[in-house]
Amino acid sequence: MIVSAPAKIILSGEHAVIYGYPALAGALSLRLTLLSNKKPPETELTSVSSALQSLQAKVESTIPRGCGLGSSAALSVAIAAAWQGSTKNRDVIAHKAWKLEQEFHGKSSGIDPTTSTFGGLLWYRRETPHLAIKHSLPISELHFAVLHTGKPAESTGDMVHFVAEQRILHRNKVDELFQNIEHCSRQIVDALLSPDPSSLMAAVNENGQYLEELGVVSPSVKSLLAQLRKDGFSCKISGAGGKTHGSGAVFVYTPDTQRYKQLNTLPYTWDLTTLSPQGVQIEERE
Ligand code: PMV
Predict the structure, then answer these.
(1) Phi/psi at 140 (nearest 5 deg)?
(2) What pLDDT was estimated at residue 130?
(3) Is the per-residue pLDDT at 254 higher than 80?
(4) Which helix (H) or strand (E) holds 126?
(5) What number is the average pLDDT over the span 113-141?
(6) What is the chain's mean pLDDT, rounded?
(7) Is 14 touching ligand 1 by the criterion CB < 6 Å?
(8) From 2's CA, which of 67, 186, 192, 233 has a CA 20 to 30 Å away?
(9) Backbone angles phi, psi at 34, to 5 degrees
(10) Is ligand 1 within 6 A of the CB of residue 240?
(11) Is ligand 1 within 6 A of the CB of residue 160?
(12) How many CA atoms lie less than 13 Å away from 148 in the CB half-sphere?
């Protein structure tokens, strides 16, 4: 069986989503493909490594690893779908993938595996350990850039742990940042759903600045984001970020598509892209 699952980008709400605040994420056209040579056993799915072994699986992927684009979630989703043998029950796949994903970064909201499972654009909120609410939205024709600032020194798990520590030390400040981020998520979703997305730029920048205040953006990436904003782009890190050097993927948006060419002057690679409607998919059966 060949199963493929997409990368994801978080448009708003990362980190806050772990604490029950809403977030907005979409699937990208980058995909991971799992080629399994054996039928799954009738046992429970317990870990990524044992599943890969049981399925005698090979993995191919165009998703950069550890950079905030959901490579580990795509792997968990592809495994969960191969274990099910079908993509009919996507809620079950997303839930099983979420369980597997906790192996990679401990506490996880489930937004990455859910987006990779369903594809498209999702409004997502974890209500309880057993209940997550997601609402699929029409994907807009939004063209945006994903700028690669390098693999962070810290893993997603490290960054999630760092934020948890900050919240213990500075509860009021961190909760206020999360509330502000929620406000941005609402503005961003409305901007995407309205025929005139002009308020998108301000809300993306604001969400980006709150993440910087949270401490999940490295000094060099902070300067890069400040420069981009001066040059008329809106931008924010996407995903867990990084504190020391490199903060993974950065979401960059301007309605003036001609302007993206300016990104060529930066010492980073970037891709101009749109959201993809395609979630997990079974490509072929033998
Ligand atoms: O795995 P990443 O870097 O895409 O981060 C996912 C978003 C977090 O909010 C940091 C973690 C989570 O599970 O929601």
Answers:
(1) -80, 170
(2) 85
(3) yes
(4) strand 121-128
(5) 94
(6) 94
(7) yes
(8) 67
(9) -115, 125
(10) yes
(11) yes
(12) 13
